[in-house]
Amino acid sequence: MAQATPLIKDLAKISEKLRAGFGRDLLRPGDDGYDAARKIHNGMIDRFPALIVRCGDASDVIQAVNVAREHGLLLSVLGGGHGVTGFAVCDQGLMIDLSRMKAIHVDPTLGTARAEGGVTWGELDRETLAVGMATTGGIERTTGIAGLTLAGGYGFLMRKHGLTCDNLISADIVTADGRLLRASAEENADLFWGVRGGGGNFGIVTSFEYRIHEVGPVYGGLVIYPMDQARERIRRYDEFVATAPDNLGPLLILGTLPDGTRAVIFLLCYFGPAEEGKRCMEPLLSGGTPIANQLAPMPYESVQSIVERFNPRGLRNYWKTSFMDRVVDDAASVMVEKFQISPSPYTHVVLYTLGGAMARVDPDVTAIENRRARHALLTVGMWDGASADETNIGWVRGFASSMEDFSSGGFYVNFDSDTPVDRVRLAYGAAKYSKLRLLKDKYDPTNFFRLNHNIRPTNEPG
User: Which residues pair with 208 in a beta bridge?
Assistant: First the structure.
């Protein structure tokens, strides 16, 4: 309660100031809509902001930032609310809710799309696909564009067109001092470098401008194998993706089917004609007997909807991640052995396969690191009920520890629940982390934006 005391003392004054600007879009505990506004995808996150402001445009964001800074309030920012860490929601502070900022403008002639910070990937895809185009986005439609873009941005299209941040043309950012800056290759280029991978450390992005690409129907879906074929399927998958064409966006998942059967699952998306996709996948699918093969021609948005079936809102989530250059036989054996004793049927392990266009981008162009790894290994612990927290978190940590010997180092910030400074440094490497700290010194020297995978300014330890 000590941290809340200064805020509570001034709460009436702060509320009056914000109410004048936001009216009914200011929420306090007990107000209608408050509880719904503070709930996000991860059911473990149960925090209580003193105030929530639902912004409608960049000027609202500037006003809220200025009030928070002037009164020394802890600040959090909600975009899509999908981040596993729950940074979007603060306790006893001011939460800026961007979810009403939904404006989208698509220019098919220029091949660009501009979207505000509260847009989700499903909403952006709907508008861009209406003209047969898309950019690399999250593999779940309810994911917000903001958090994914700022961390780098993995998705089915990344092997063909690069990461989401590689397709970012510009961003409008409200900084800690209340300025609205445009970041691009031509304006504030240093900030543009930092927001492409450095997360929300430098400000609140109110608008993103993307490069979009022609995307037609795809050939994709799930191919499901029993666990007694898992080691061979993992081995074949790892060998296959090493030389797979850029048109293929593949994932391998160890998961549990609705009937309780544990299985190894390929989630595949080929950007091109169905016959071409079938020929591409033949080496991967040969030699095994699947439980089900659901591959078919389908719209791109249908592939984007598949993961939602396995990741319902409200379950408790704890994730760990690392990178792998290849999956040796011993690694596959450990993965299979450990997964089969996972305590929750919702928990799954993912080989999120990288490569292609994203790996050919100069690593120094953006803040994101580990472009050349073959896979991001993602351990998604999901369960129902707080009484099972200790068991499930312990299992995720144990699984991640058992895979450390096979890791190529580093981790991807959007796929990890642990946020200590030493660990954040590992995500960027020493050189990039030092450069990011200097940017923090320039744009946020007081660490005003600190509810994130925090890059501390040089006047703070870390």
Answer: 115, 171
Two structure tokens written together for 213: 């690409």
- CA-wise closest residue to 339 among 296, 380, 385, 297: 380
How far apart CA 149 and CA 135 sit, in angstroms, is: 11
Supply angle C-alpha 414, 135, 78, rounded to 5: 40
Are 158 and 183 contacting, i.e. CB atoms less than 8 angstroms apart? no
Cβ atoms of 113 and 121 within 8 Å: the answer is no
Indicate the SS3 state at residue 303: helix
Q: How confident is the model at residue 12 (pLDDT cuts 50, 70, 90)?
A: confident
pLDDT at 80 over 90: yes
Paired residues of 48 in beta bridges:
none
The answer to whether 338 and 429 have CB atoms below 8 angstroms apart is no
- Provide the edge-to-edge strand list for the sheet that holds 51-54: 26-27, 51-54, 94-97, 75-78
pLDDT, tens digit, for every residue of 265-317? 999 999 999 999 999 999 999 999 999 999 999 999 999 999 988 889 999 99
Name 125's Cβ contacts closer than 8 Å, sequence gap at least 6: 134, 137, 141, 300, 301, 304
Domains and CATH numbers, the chain: 2-97 (3.30.43.10), 104-214 (3.30.465.10), 218-415 (3.40.462.20)
Task: Dump pLDDT digits (tens) for 395-412.
Answer: 999 999 999 999 999 999
Residue 1 has pLDDT above 50, yes or no: no
How far is residue 253's CA from residue 265's CA, in Å, rounded to a whole number?
5
- Residues 175, 201: contact at Cβ < 8 Å? no
Distance of alpha carbon 125 from alpha carbon 256, whole angstroms: 29
What are φ and ψ of residue 458, in 5° steps? -70, -15
pLDDT digits (tens, 9 = 90+) for 138-194: 999 999 999 999 999 999 999 999 999 999 999 999 999 999 999 999 999 999 999
- Interatomic CA distance for residues 370 and 413, integer angstroms: 11
Q: Which helix (H) or strand (E) holds 18?
A: helix 5-22
Rounded Cα distance between 455 and 304, Å, is 32
Token output for 432: 């990039």
CA distances to 45, 87, 90, 188, 239 from 72, rounded to whole Å, are: 23, 18, 14, 27, 53
Q: Is 8 exposed, middle or buried (0-12, 13-18, 19+ CB in 10 A)?
A: exposed
Give φ, ψ of 297 to 5 degrees: -65, 140
Q: What's the pLDDT band for 17 if we cut at 50, 70, 90?
A: confident
